[in-house]
Specification:
By secondary structure, the chain is α+β, with helices and mostly antiparallel strands. The chain has one domain: Aminopeptidase (3-Layer(aba) Sandwich), CATH 3.40.630.30. The chain contains 7 helices and 8 strands, in the order αβαβαααβββαβαββ. An 8-stranded mixed sheet has the order 1-2-3-4-5-6-8-7. Helix 3 runs antiparallel to helix 4 and helix 3 packs across helix 5.
Length: 202
């Protein structure tokens, strides 16, 4: 059950620590260290632009290297630079939740109405990414749960998330969080076709 403070602002505060130990590679070590950080899930701010551009680039590279050609990974990342995130913060911040660790953005989730009528859900998570150095400590689940609460507040029933086929980490994560495969289709970018999978929560 959520505490009153978590229900109000999706925030969990523990003791502060001045530095994040990026050298920690073991998930148990990361989880232990996370307990010493201030973890905040909040709406996007313009000050997050630089950090989120780095999060997107590193998360896309980690998730899709070997699936998407390197040249296209770089091209996609170049379109999500600080200017992109500044624009989003100024125009659509209410559709973005940011995972902040000790006041630095380390992940995000974007959400809104379902854009695919053939999937029986009213809500959709468009993107959910956590900095690879912070993965394995339950932070992605926190973002997912926070977005689901926001969609519920908007009275959107059901949720769909799409991921490119071959992204085994995403597949395992969404299944562990209760999603099940509800369909697939093809998406095309930079002249190449990719199969993607729909995960559904009802």
């Amino acid at each position: 059950m959520l505490s009153r403070s978590e229900k109000k602002c999706d925030r969990v505060v523990t003791c502060m620590n001045p530095e994040f130990p990026f050298q920690l590679a073991d998930a148990k070590d990361r989880l232990s260290f996370m307990s010493t950080l201030e973890i905040d899930i909040r709406h996007l701010e313009t000050a997050d632009a630089g950090s989120l551009s780095e999060v997107f680039a590193s998360a896309w590279d980690e998730a899709y290297r070997g699936i998407v050609p390197d040249v296209d990974l770089r091209r996609i990342a170049s379109r999500r630079g600080p200017d992109y995130w500044t624009h989003v913060a100024q125009n659509a911040a209410r559709q973005v939740l940011v995972l902040s660790l000790d006041n630095t953005a380390r992940g995000y989730v974007t959400f809104g109405h379902n854009r695919h009528n053939r999937i029986p859900a009213q809500g959709e998570i468009y993107e959910l990414y956590v900095d690879p150095v912070c993965q394995g400590a339950g932070l992605g689940r926190r973002l997912l749960d926070a977005a689901r609460r926001k969609l519920a507040e908007q009275r959107r029933k059901g949720l769909v998330i799409w991921a490119l086929a071959g992204n085994d980490r995403a597949d395992n994560f969404y299944r562990r969080c209760g999603g099940h495969v509800a369909g697939e289709d093809n998406i095309r970018f930079f002249g190449r076709n990719y199969r993607r999978i729909a995960y559904l929560w009802q």
